[in-house]
Amino acid sequence: MSSETLIIQAGLSERPRKSRWPARLDVLQSLSGLFLALFMWGHMFFVASILLGKDAMWTITKFFEGYYFFDKSHHWLVSLVVAFVAAVFIVHAAMAVRKFPINFRQLSVYRAHAKSMRHGDTTLWIWQVYTGFAMFFMASAHLYQMMVWPQNIGPYGSSDRMWSDGLWPFYLVLLLAVELHGGIGLYRLAVKWCWPNAPRQFLKKLKWGITAFFLILGFATLGAYMKIGYEHRLEYGTPYVPTWMQQNAAQNAVQHAVEEGVK
Ligand code: HEM
Fold first, then answer.
1. pLDDT per residue as tens digits for the range 76-130
2. Domain span at residue 62?
3. Which residues line ligand 1 (CB under 6 A)?
4. Does residue 8 fall inside a structural domain?
5. Do the domain assignments include residue 146?
6. What is the CATH number of the domain that holds 80?
7. SS (H, E, C) the chain
8. How does pLDDT run across 132-145, given as a tens digit for each residue?
9. Number of structural domains in the chain
10. Residue of the CA atom closest to atom 16 of ligand 1
11. From 30, 114, 162, 255, which residue has the greatest number of CB atoms within 10 Å?
12. CA of 101 to the centre of ligand 1 (A)
């Protein structure tokens, strides 16, 4: 093929053609976003179990490790769940990146457009972009850590990470990004797919209510891990032993001592 023909054909792919793919990819983006938002609600409650005490968080952690089904912890079960969530996260990010402003010109056009429209929902959209961009890096790092070292999840393991490993500022930023992103995302899903004539003012209030709830829960949870991590700093790296196991061990020790005394 001559270079002249190549140059002539270069623009052909940009001819407008009817295709269902953009719509299909949009549905995929929405479904993966819905899954991740609902997953995050569950995640926030599981992680917040530390507010009920170290034993509560230990119990939840062991549940996900299959301890109550196999009488033994299988950390790879957690890795498997994380790998699945990470896969959905990658699909969601890949679908979302199609809509990012890709150069300064596009961003300037968007900004001018948003300024002239003064429409709240248009402004919310750019926050989706900023927080989504932050999560590309932060959520990936978090997911990688959870997938590769699931054995370090637990009342002391997680608290040591927050305090002694100094990751609490990372979690603070990730928390803000994920809650803003998830709240706005669910609101946009409701307006886009479920509710054509949605009462937007009501939905917005609901959205901010849910975001505020999860942020308060998240800050309290973060504070709890930091406090435990601080108290545990001198025994960094030692795993938590639940109260009932400590009591059993103490009882066994007393029994052993009594039996030794009788002999
Ligand atoms: C199955 C996948 C996941 C698992 C097993 C998991 C596990 C955990 C655990 C155990 C903690 C406590 C701190 C620690 O141990 O480091 C935590 C905190 C956190 N995770 Fe995840 N996570 C997962 C996915 C995600 C995703 C996809 C996001 C966001 C995009 C996320 C955002 C956060 C945030 C913001 C915190 C801090 C929570 C707070 O301060 O209340 N996690 N996660």
1. 999 999 999 999 999 999 999 988 888 888 888 888 888 888 777 788 888 999 9
2. 23-240
3. 43, 47, 78, 81-82, 85, 89, 135, 139, 142-143, 146, 153, 158, 161, 171, 174-175, 178, 218, 221-222
4. no
5. yes
6. 1.20.1300.10
7. CCHHHHHHHCCHHHCCCCCCHHHHHHHHHHHHHHHHHHHHHHHHHHHHHHHHCHHHHHHHHHHHCCHHHHCCCCHHHHHHHHHHHHHHHHHHHHHHHCCCCCCHHHHHHHHHHHHHHCCHHHHHHHHHHHHHHHHHHHHHHHHHHHHHCHHHCCHHHHHHHHCCCCCHHHHHHHHHHHHHHHHHHHHHHHHHHHCCCCCHHHHHHHHHHHHHHHHHHHHHHHHHHHHHHHHCHHHCCCCCCCHHHHHHHHHHHHHHHHHHHHC
8. 999 999 999 999 99
9. 1
10. 158
11. 162
12. 28
